[in-house]
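Homework help board

Subject: predicted structure for assignment chain

Our instructor gave us this sequence and asked us to write out the predicted structure in token form, then describe one feature. I got the tokens but I'm not sure how to describe them. Can anyone check?
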Amino acid sequence: MTKQLHLAAQYLATVAKSFLEAKADDSHTNLGFSVEEKSIQTWPLDEADTKLCLNYEQFSLEWKSHEGNSILLDGKTDAEIVKWLSQTSKILGFEKPYQFDLHYEMPYSTNPTDKFEKSDVKELVGLRTLAQNALKSFIEKEQLTSDIRIWPHHFDSGAFSAMDNSEKSVGMGMAIPDSMVNEHYFYISGYKGHDSLDTSTFENLSHGKWLNEGFKGAILPASKANEEIAVQFFIEAFQELKL
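My token output:
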């Protein structure tokens, strides 16, 4: 179901690309997660705070607006969804036409006849909620400044902040399964300018481990974490990165 949600999130990204002013870092296309509504959401798209949302439990796209239009994705093709977005965005008053125009490659092969299929999302809702709450708690404890956003290309929940009184910065979050870890996992890494910080001399962590080849940072599989453990992982790693 991770693949299905990742693909569906691209409709939110392309809606943002269609209707928001472009930013150099592409942040206008990143997404938020609502723990209460169990959905990922675009930034507000107009002065009425209209958003497009992907509801995990319903597996639907929903306009959060005065109109309240929605479409269930189960059994729908890409063409059907693009048509619905084009029509409903006009009804909502967007003057520019909606275009499904991705500016990056997705890690999946698809064809026009593919249909979305709904399956159990309880675990994935739990993982997004865990990531959101752990990141929020860590950011508050360390008095960092960062939004928690989902980047539609890689589909990770992430945050990024400068470290006080230094040239260093830190990035952290939860990633979906990839070539490095075959399950969802927490990560944190430090930077000085554009260069990753070397981790070879860092102290071992109570949970998770340091990597220094390719990705330079710490990782913790989500299956070995709850919110308390995830926050402890972030805090311990952050203390090493600050030195």
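Reply (TA_rk): Your tokens look well-formed. For the description, you could write something like this. The longest helix spans residues 122-141. That's the kind of observation they're looking for.
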